[in-house]
Amino acid sequence: MRRDFIAQVLIEMERDPSIVFLTGDLGFNALEKIKEQFPNRFLNVGIAEQHMVGMASGLALEGKKVIVYSIASFATMRPYEQIRNDVCYHNLDVKIVGVGGGYNYANHGITHHTVEDVALMNALPHMYVLCPGYSWEAREAAKAMVRHTGPAYIRLGLSPGIAYEKKHFIFSLGKGFVVREGSDIVLVSTGNVLDVVQATAALIEKKHKLSVCVLSMPSLNPFDGKLLLKYARKAKGIFTIEEHSTTGGLGAIVASILFTHGVEKKAFHAFGFPPESFLKAVGDRNYLLNEVGLEANKLAHDIARYL
């Protein structure tokens, strides 16, 4: 996914000479082309994320459009004060790119797990939040992010994700996509678990003979409430699935919209990382996803119990 994102960033940098790219000592075997093609607009700041965001803010004040790139936990949590006070307060044209959101860097331990970033970024004024689900969404999100003026955060997975039929989809900020048509259940997905969600939908239809709609929501702020409500009002149940804490992420966004618009007498549950404690298990991404119940067979079983 990140390679597709970087490929689009290269196109945008060729188009717009004001774009500057900063990395926090990350991106080997991914950022070389940017460094080679735009040596005067690329800088490895080192493991100094707070300084990097401060530098990006200064460049933005001088008219540059700045992309800041690091592992998601370090791109969001370590420089949060600078993102809030420098970037968002002044509404600067700085784009924060968090690589490996969720458990993509699972084997590196808790320091590299990122299940709070969407909640943190979504709480900030002016901040747009994007969480693409597979390679096409990542490319389109890169284009939309760069062409938007103002703060933005994009969360990238490491795997390409599973493709879906794009039909006549046009990516734009604040819009979601219908990946699978259905009427009994709505599964709402964001980010790199889209493949798990699609597998879950297929299992539910096969085992429980229910018609399942899958919505992919790569834009979390702004959010496509209109699309959500269109399908939620007709369904028996609405379920969100995300590689993020159930506090402050997709589940919270969807629950708020449903309650605000009176769509509350439905089965509803938010699947994600339980916020009560840290996950201390050690293993790869799939192992950790299984530990928190984000596995297709487990999800299909649990969703059926709510209906």
UniProtKB/TrEMBL annotation:
Domain Transketolase-like pyrimidine-binding, first and last residues per copy? 1-162
Q: Which InterPro entries match?
A: PDH/Transketolase, THDP-binding, Transketo_C/PFOR_II, Transketolase-like_Pyr-bd, Transketolase_C
Q: Which domain of life is it from?
A: Bacteria
Q: Which cofactor does it need?
A: thiamine diphosphate
Alphabetized, the UniProt keywords read: Thiamine pyrophosphate
Q: Please report a single Pfam family linked to this protein.
A: Transket_pyr
Tagged with keyword Acetylation: no
Under the heading PANTHER family, the entry gives: HYPOTHETICAL TRANSKETOLASE FAMILY PROTEIN (PTHR43825:SF5), PYRUVATE DEHYDROGENASE E1 COMPONENT (PTHR43825)
Which family is annotated? Belongs to the transketolase family.
Q: What is this protein called?
A: Transketolase-like pyrimidine-binding domain-containing protein
Which source organism does the UniProt entry give? Candidatus Kaiserbacteria bacterium GWA2_50_9
